[in-house]
Amino acid sequence: MDWEIIGYAAAALTMFGFLPQLVKMARTKSVDDVSLVMMVQMGLGVFLWLVYGLHLKNSPLIVANVVSLAILILGLFVYFRYTTRRYFR
Q: CA-based angle 75:12:39, to the nearest 5?
């Protein structure tokens, strides 16, 4: 078995795992059922994986986590754009 294929498949699934939620948030303009804590926690975890990948100089880890982090950051922008909660008053 070629384990690298498994790694690339896992990377693809995790890279785009949050994308359906992001599309739904943008389409419905509603983020009421989205957890900000989950998004921040996931973002920090992805950032740490990115740092680890940079340390190892592992391109698949770096690419997967850069894409994942970009999608999560975009998700945070959409979250704060459409949130009905007020955090910074």
A: 25
**Which residues in the chain show pLDDT less than 70?**
85-89
Can you tell me the distance from the alpha carbon of 29 to that of 25, in angstroms, rounded to the nearest whole number?
5
Q: Transcribe 11-23 into DSSP letters.
A: HHHHHTTTHHHHH
The two tokens of residue 55 are 């340390």
Minimal CA–CA distance to 12: which of 73, 48, 64?
A: 64
pTM, entire model? 0.83
Query: Which has the closest alpha carbon to 49: 72, 22, 80?
Result: 72
The residue with tokens 């943008």 is: 26
Identify the structural domains of the chain with CATH numbers, from first to last: 3-82 (1.20.1280.290)
Cα(28)–Cα(68) distance, integer angstroms: 22
